[in-house]
Amino acid sequence: MRSHQLWEALAESIHNQGLDPLQTLGWKKTGSMLVGRTANECSALKSRVEQLLEAGLEASFLSCDDLQSEEPALMLGSEGGAAFVPDDYQIDARCTVAFIEKGNRYFAAEGRYAEFYYEPATSLLRSESSGDVVAVQTSKNTLYSKKAIIVAAGCWSGSVLHDLIKHSEIELDFPVKPRKGHLLVIENFKSLNLNHGLMELGYVNHKSATLSSTTTDSGSGYDANTSPVSMTATMDMSGRLVLGSSRQLVGFNTEIDESVITQIWERAGEFFPILKQVSLKELNKSREVRVGLRPYMPDGKPVIDHVPRISNMFLAAGHEGEGLTLALGTAEMIANIVLGNPQKVDPAPYSM
């Protein structure tokens, strides 16, 4: 909720500068729907709506009949329904990261910002008197720190920490792992139009996502406990259809797995029958597959905290698929920890 407030404030600031937040960030109010197809799933969705309302968010349960006017192409069956959060927005990851990076570079002339890409961090230099970290050694430079060092390296954060402290007496286990995901992006797909961001209930059930490297035969029936795929669907700022999503623990492998792409397409077709009229092979020239590694934590929560026994070193990692959407709230929290400022959100649940 705090990150949502900060994104809204940023979008308003961009608008006040005479820019369009849609073009700059892909900032688009779509609302989100979490959908289910069975009575049991709808019971869980109603409970989730109650939780959201108690947290202060606007939310409602939509029956199958209600959904017909909101998403005509979505077919859930007579028992289906959705938890609807109307105030949710979406952003475009590539546009947003480019905007943030450009903004950072304005501070380079003042000596407040610099980039050292493609320079692996190899070790820490510590003060013999205080034990504080005074610099990070990279393969090419020594980067001195006046205030704090923050490790925010996603699924690589565990190995970065290990490399940095390997010559010390500190023992630290940060169990972040890379969880591979595929997205299928289709240009100029006129057969389907979506008004909201949609995902099936199984997607948000962190424990149900597969921890196996194997995939299943989609013809044998879908099981959230064995399949790496859950349905997500939205339209991006350019009108492209974006379908997902998969979750696999297969190390740092980022190769495209066509069997997973097939499962994503077939799973989406179970919710949007109009997709079954089109063969995935027909879309070869108009499709893009995106593969990335999400920083997975076993308990589903990121860590935003001091690194134990190193007073001026901090960690912000483990957000899995929410790193960008929670970036502003995370930045505010870690900055307040570093500076000793009052927090807007209790950081205790995110401690190491």
UniProtKB/TrEMBL annotation:
Keywords: Oxidoreductase
Keyword Oxidoreductase: yes
Entry annotated with the keyword Oxidoreductase: yes
GO CC annotation: cytoplasm
Gene3D superfamilies per the UniProt record, alphabetical: D-Amino Acid Oxidase, subunit A, domain 2, FAD/NAD(P)-binding domain
Top-rank taxon, per record: Eukaryota
InterPro entries, A to Z: FAD-dep_OxRdtase, FAD/NAD-bd_sf
Domain FAD dependent oxidoreductase: 2-336
GO molecular function, one term: oxidoreductase activity
Pfam family, one: DAO
Main function: Required for the assembly of the mitochondrial membrane respiratory chain NADH dehydrogenase (Complex I). Involved in mid-late stages of complex I assembly.
Protein's recorded name: FAD-dependent oxidoreductase domain-containing protein 1
Organism: Olea europaea subsp. europaea
